Structures are given as C-alpha cells and as structure tokens.
Amino acid sequence: MQVNKALAATKSRATIDVLICCAGASYPGRFLEQDLDVHETTMQLNYFGSLYAIKAVAAEMVARRQGRIVIVSSALMAVGFVGFTTYAPSKWALRGLADCLRNEFLPFGIHVHIAAPPDTNTPGYENEMKLKPPEAVLASQAAGEDLYTPEQVASAMMSGLEKGKYHLPSPNLVPQFPQDPNELSGTDARVQAAVGWRFFPSALA
Predict the structure, then answer these.
(1) Which residues belong to the signal peptide in this entry (predicted)?
(2) pTM (2 decimals)?
C-alpha cells in the first residue's frame, strides 16, 4: 500500500505531527445513468483513502500523545444535490468519521479537525464541471458560489488549525460557519437543515 510505503520512508527521519487527508475526486452524474463502479471508486478514494492514511499514523500519534489529523470533506457533507449521489455520501462518511475520531482520540491528546472547502480551482474541479448535469450547474449558480484558489482555501484552513478549531473555516463561510467546536457534531435534523440553508439559501428556497 502506498500509504505504508510513504510512512516507512519517513520513520527513520521524522515523526508525523500533522496528517492532512485531502485526496479526493468528484464524478457528477444522474443516479440512474451512473454505474455502481463509479460509486465504489468515489468511496474508495474519498473515504477509504483518508481512512487508510489515518489508520497508518494514528497508533503512533496515540503512543506519543501528540498529533493533529485534518480531514478535508466538503460543503456537501451537510447537504446533497442532484448529480452528487456518488460524491456527497463519501463526504458525509468523512464527517461521521471525523466526529467519531474526535471523541475517541481527544483523551490521548490527538486533535481531529474537519474542513468543508468551497469550489476550488483545481484540475479536479475542471473535470467535475465537464460532468455536472444541468440541474447541478443551476444549483451552483443559485448559491452564488465563487471559485477560490487552493491558496485561499489552505490559508483559511490553517488559520483555524492554529486556533484549534474542530470545524476549520472556509474562505466563503468564515462569518457563517460554526465556530463552536461542539456545533454540528451530532445528527439533529434541524441542524442539518439549518446548515443546508446557510450554505445554499437560494437553491433551497
């Protein structure tokens, strides 16, 4: 496994103090038009890719009682739309993983963080736009989403990481995104609905 090889290569030189799980991809499409292997591929990369990396380093972090784990999810970890039946569930799964790991690792001095970045100008985003069904494009337009650079997204995330925030800020949601680390850690339907309204008020009207 590539994760284990990379970990073995670093062990002789340094310890891993911060793990940032940001590998992922989106393959939008209508549910009835997509094969099951697209769902499996997306879940393997977006969810299990992060899970494998965390599993590889967590034991050592716990032994040292020190470390930070950043799980990069998406705004779609809280609300779903047409065209994202492959992508959104994988990001909801990451949010569930982060909530559970946060509770489990906190007594050992390991801090878990989750990020929900907006549309970011990357090659992956360019490919996503080629696959989006018209309904998904309209939803993005109704939400008034801007396109951000990777540097803007990373800067917002790092500012939250330095402050010890559980929910790391996003450049488009800093004023709105919950700053209380206890917020959004449960599954209350009213909270889910409120978050969806805050993210995409026009699209949900």
Answers:
(1) none
(2) 0.79
